[in-house]
Amino acid sequence: MEKLTKDDVHPKILEALLADTNISVEDALENEMILNMGPQHPATHGVLRLLLRLDGETLMGCVPELGYLHRGYEKLAENMSYYEFIPHTDRLDYLSPMSNNVAWALAVEKLAGIEAPPRAQYIRMIISELARIASHLVAIGSLAMDVGALTVFLWTLREREKILDVWDILCGARFTNSYTRIGGVANDAQPEALAKVKWFIDQYLPNLDECERLINTNRIFVERLDGIGVISADEAIDIGLTGPSLRGSGVEFDLRRAQPYLFYNEMDFKVVTYPDGDSLARYFVRADETRESIKIIRQALEKMPQGDTLLNQPKKVLPKKAEIYSKMEELIHDFMIVNFGINPEPGEIYHAVESSKGELGFYLVSKGDGKPWKCKIRSPSFVNLQAVPQLVKGHMISDVVAIVGSLDPVMGEADK
Amino acid sequence: MPLSKELIEQKLNEKFSGESFVFTEHRNELTVSLDKKNIAALCKYLKEEDQLAFKLCEDITAIDWAKRKNRFTVVYHIFSIKQNFRLTLKADVDESDCNIDSVSSVWKTANWHERETFDMYGIHFNNHPDLRRMYMPEEFEYHPLRKDFPLMGIPGSLSLPKNKN
Amino acid sequence: MGLEARLNGDSFFTTTVDALTEWARKNSVWPMPMGISCCAIEMMASGDPKYDIARFGSEVMRFTPRQCDLMIVAGTVTYKMSHVVRKIYDQMPDPKWVIAMGACTSSGGMYRSYPVVQGIDQFLPVDIYVAGCPPRPDNLLNALMQIQDKIGRTKARDFQDKPLPELTVIQNN
Ligand code: SF4
User: Any CB–CB contact under 8 A between C159 and chain B?
Assistant: First the structure.
């Protein structure tokens, strides 16, 4: 690792790092060491930068530095219509683009006061859960890789590829999908896509078990996570953790259960919690959550009704492409929406969904015109990362990767 | 007893008699507008009162109204896991007196949210333990989410590395 | 089997230094995965069993720039990050190549906004631009093959006259 000069660390960051001591900077560099980790580091999951204060191998303090991937989403959102922002939501949490699309569509629908038809909602639910599995698979794999078990990473990626194949069939894109629309989804799920989903859920569980057999009994893996980065339930709520990281501390809080959206209230699933609050518990929550997701998908496939997948509401919802090309009225509506937007009535809403990382919320303020006046993204990774300094304190330097990996941050979302 | 608009209204008026709160509802979401000098005390009360227990602070942000008299509004989204209830708090901040009390002593998580709001809008949070920029480099002089900041930024305000060879 | 079978008898063959080095060089390109955002996931996917970048001799992703000769910049480069990218590029030994993966790195892509550098060629020499948002792994492999082509056309003397970069000594005070 590079040795740091004083110019590399901005004085204000240094100040924050040394805040709880009364030794001067000169002293600090003599007795203790300041180590720079990231923003280009394989275990920081992107471009997170951590400045660590070390006494020997023990961590005395840590200051995360964000913003290396700040792309100005909120400013961009203010300058484009609600429809145009859909592709941007893909790239927020790029490990589960589909569920971000759904979250955005739901938020805008709430703002505009419309609701998608049931079949579309079921499709959305299926894809959100598949996205959750895909994201958790990467989280599990990369956590295992961070602590030294490389094989699992390749195995989980193999499973994830299958989900990407589903999306390829479903909407033609394998990664950044932009599949949902305001008021529905882009196209109906074809039978082949649903068959592929069915095939996937049937073969997934044995494969997950196989991965688990590889690491759950692996002494190195377990001991590097067990008891590392413990956070109690109260502390976790106070620091704002949500999602699997919160449930790993034994808090049974899941927005799918607490404030059901889509058709989650009709689904039978368990909110997975583990009481320990350490990195291992967070890993277990993720693995078990994918099992629950499979359950949900199976029920949704059974219950899914036939019918339309796009709302017929010409002032708010873009008409279908084929109709735009063949009918005059649809063409006019298309023109109006594309040029002037959907103009939701003035007001403001906050809508949150349970994404794979935690609570993903959109706060939208409309002034009655085509563009949002204000769009705030409440991203779970951003908030979860805030817990890092308090989690790593007192641990060894090698535990940092395990802790960051167990929180599963995605920097695209954390930096916005 | 499940939380409702009436109950919160009654509780707040009881506790903070003499202060005016404006309650609004849009799409079933309850919003309370209040004076900015009350914010810290109110948040503390909302969190610690047993029946309310707004223990989870979800988000803090601000809105720039551009031409309005009170230019900014700071917005808090808080959630009560116990009661399964979400509440939005709003406090107006004027540009000439651009500060508001920090609530990071109430909810630890407010720390970064407030730093972000400071970075993006330049609103100063009093008594914040560590008010630095969240995303932009420290040398950056502007506050990007203000409405008078252009989308493409101000040329020359951010530097590129110099070409060595 | 292989080479030995063809070398019947004398066990030696003649070639030029150029041919040998370029053959070796192009079949063992070690990438420096400069994974910044979404494209990095597709870059990872190109290493997975389905796409298998190992077929091209490039599976050895090294996370230290000192051991790499190809930098794959995958993801949106912001102004804040650009200094880091450049610093890492400067640490790579010559000869080195750069792939700009994705629309963002090539041109800023969908982010016409204040923090994003509108194309990394403003501060880095780029050899191959890969289109797509994100490019499919196949597309990245295609870019890799083009880089191999390009390496195949180099001569040893192309790199002779380049002065070695000055290593800056960092003093601890
Ligand atoms: S090109 Fe697209 S996928 Fe790649 S980093 Fe940019 S936004 Fe993400």
Answer: no
